[in-house]
Every structure is written in structure tokens, then in C-alpha cells.
Amino acid sequence: MGIIRDQKGFTLIEILITIPIIAILAAGILYSLGTSSKILISTETEERAKDLAISDMDYVMSQPYSDQDNPASPTQYQLPQPTNYANYVSTLTVTDLTSDPGQEEEIDVAISLNGKILFTLSDYRANY
């Protein structure tokens, strides 16, 4: 009869089967990390746009009522942005809702980044 030896280590077959399994698991984990980081960046960008829209709306609501010459057409403005929002564009649209300019207004603030609108905020105000 043969001599019984203690087996130590792995056989070549075991190693060749394990390597692809580990590679597939690692690829799945790396893909998940990449997707979650994209979602995190997208969420942060949208949150910054929301904060900027709220800030701009607060600023506009604190201003005196406009006295437009042509209340039928909306008036658009580009608002200046703080330096930490340098790439964001804030477009303000003020539309008079009555024939008497400056009495009832609809105010829309749209925040865009690289030409894509990220967030829009609307509000109304009346001067009675």
C-alpha cells in the first residue's frame, strides 16, 4: 500500500475554478460602486440646483413689484450666481397675470447646468 501524505495547499484545478469566480464577483462590486458614485454626484448636483432656486426665489420675492409696459409677454432675466455656483444658470421669468402690470405675478426660477434644466420653482405674488 501507498504512503498517506498530509495534503497542504490547493490543487491546480481548484485554483483555476476559483479565479474566474473571484473575477466575476469583483466585476460586480466595481460596477455597483461606479453606479452608486454617479447617483451620488447626480443627487448632489440636483440638491445644489434646488438650494440655488430657493435662494433666487427668496431674493426675487423681496424685490419691489415690477411695472412692465407689456404685461402680456413674460419678462426673463439672468440672475448672477455666487462663485461656488459658477457653472449654474438661473433664469427668472416674471409673467403678469392681470391687465394691470405689477399687481399679480407668476414667478418661475429655472436652474440649468450645461444646458440641462435641473430644477424649476414657481410662485405667485399679489400687490393689493
Largest sheet: 4 strands, antiparallel
* Average pLDDT for all residues: 80
CATH architect. name: 2-Layer Sandwich
Q: Oligomeric form of this entry?
A: single chain
Helices and strands: which structural class? alpha+beta
Q: Helix amount, in percent? A: 25-40%
Range of strand content: 25-35%
Number of helical regions: 1
Give the strand order of the largest sheet, numbering strands 1, 2, ... along the chain.
1-2-3-4
- Which regions have little confidence, pLDDT < 50, spanning 5+ residues? 67-72
Topology:
Blueprint lengths: L11 H50 L13 E5 L8 E9 L7 E10 L2 E11 L2
Antiparallel strand pairs: 1-2, 2-3, 3-4
What does this structure look like?
Helix content is 39%, strand content 27%. The chain has one helix at residues 12-61; strands at 75-79, 88-96, 104-113, 116-126. It starts with 11 loop residues before the first helix and ends with a strand. The protein has a single domain (12-126), classed as Pantoate--beta-alanine Ligase, Chain: A,domain 2 (2-Layer Sandwich), CATH 3.30.1300. Residues 67-72 have low confidence and may be disordered. The longest helix has 50 residues, at 12-61. Strands 1-2-3-4 form a 4-stranded antiparallel beta sheet, with helices on one face. The relative contact order is 0.14. It is of the alpha+beta class and 128 residues long. It contains 1 helix and 4 strands, in the order αββββ.
